[in-house]
Amino acid sequence: xxxxxxxxxxxxxxxxxxxxxxxxxxxxxxxxxxxxxxxxxxxxxxxxxxxxxxxxxxxxxxxxxxxxxxxxxxxxxxxxxxxxxxxxxxxxxxxxxxxxxxxxxxxxxxxxxxxxxxxxxxxxxxxxxxxxxxxxxxxxxxxxxxxxxxxxxxxxxxxxxxxxxxxxxxxxxxxxxxxxxxxxxxxxxxxxxxxxxxxxxxxxxxxxxxxxxxxxxxxxxxxxxxxxxxxxxxxxxxxxxxxxxxxxxxxxxxxxxxxxxxxxxxxxxxxxxxxxxxxxxxxxxxxxxxxxxxxxxxxxxxxxxxxxxxxxxxxxxxxxxxxxxxxxxxxxxxxx
Length: 336
Prior knowledge:
Layout: H1 4-11, H2 15-23, H3 30-43, H4 49-56, E1 61-66, H5 72-87, E2 91-96, H6 101-113, E3 118-121, H7 128-135, E4 141-144, E5 154-158, H8 160-173, E6 179-183, H9 189-204, E7 214-216, H10 221-233, E8 240-243, H11 246-258, E9 268-273, E10 286-289, H12 292-307, E11 316-319, E12 322-324
Parallel strand pairs: 1-2, 1-3, 3-4, 4-5, 5-11, 6-7, 6-8, 8-9, 9-10
Antiparallel strand pairs: 10-12
C-alpha cells in the first residue's frame, strides 16, 4: 500500500505539500496540485483516516449500539440514523449487542477506542458496569428509545406510557373487558412504561389489571409465539391482547392461527411500533406507531449539536405515538 512519502517522491514534492493537497489546508499552485493528484491516482494512495483524525481531533464517525439487528423496528431506526449521518458528512459504525450486557460493554469500549466523535445508544439493559462506563464516556452521547437510570445525557424516545394507554383504550372502546398484556422484559424502562399505560387505562375504566393477565416475553417473534400459546392455554383466556411490540405480535398471530383462534373475530390483538411488516400481516395488524424516522433524525441532530459545541445541558425529546387501526381488532362478541 502506497504511503504519503511514495506520493511525494512520485510528484517530486514534500510530504507537507501532499498533505495540504489532500486536506485542502493551504493554497497549492495548480501545476503542483495536478502533479500530486496524478501521483495519488497512479499509486492508488488512500489517506489515513487515523492520521487525519489525530490532527483534526475528529474522525467524522458516530457509533451506534442496538440490541437486536433482526428486529425490523431497530433496522428502520438505523436506516433513518444512517441516512441523516451520511447527509451530514458522518460515517455510522453499527454494533449489534444481541441483548447481551457483556457484549454491550465490550462494544462500547471498542467504539470509544476508535476515537468516534459521538455515540447513539439503544441499551440492552442497564447494569452497574454499563452505567459506570457511560458516566466516564468522554464523548457526546444520546440515549434512544430506552432510558437508563442515573445517566444524565440526551434522550430521544416515544411516550411509551401514552402508547400503552392508547392501545388499551382502543380495546376498551371496542367493548373488551378482559384484556391481557403481553409485555417485553421487565428490566427495560420502555417495557415497564407500556405496562403502566395498560394498567392506567384499565383502572380508568374500572377494570382490574390482575397478575393473571400480565405476561412477559423477550420482544422476539418466537417469544410472542410461545407466550401466546401459554395465554391461550390459561384457564380464563382474554378477549383481547395488547402485545408490546409488533415482532411479538406476529408470533402471537401465528400461535392463534395454529390454535384455530380467529383474529379478530374470536380475539382482538394490537401491537406496538408499526414496523413495515405490520401492514402485511394476516390480518393486517392494528398497532401503536412510533415515529421512527423522526426519532433517528432527532438523535443524530442532538449528537451533532453536542459535537459542534452548540449545547452543554442535557435535553430530552419525547415524541407522541399514533394509533393505527387495521384488521386485527374488532368489537367484542356478545358471548364474550
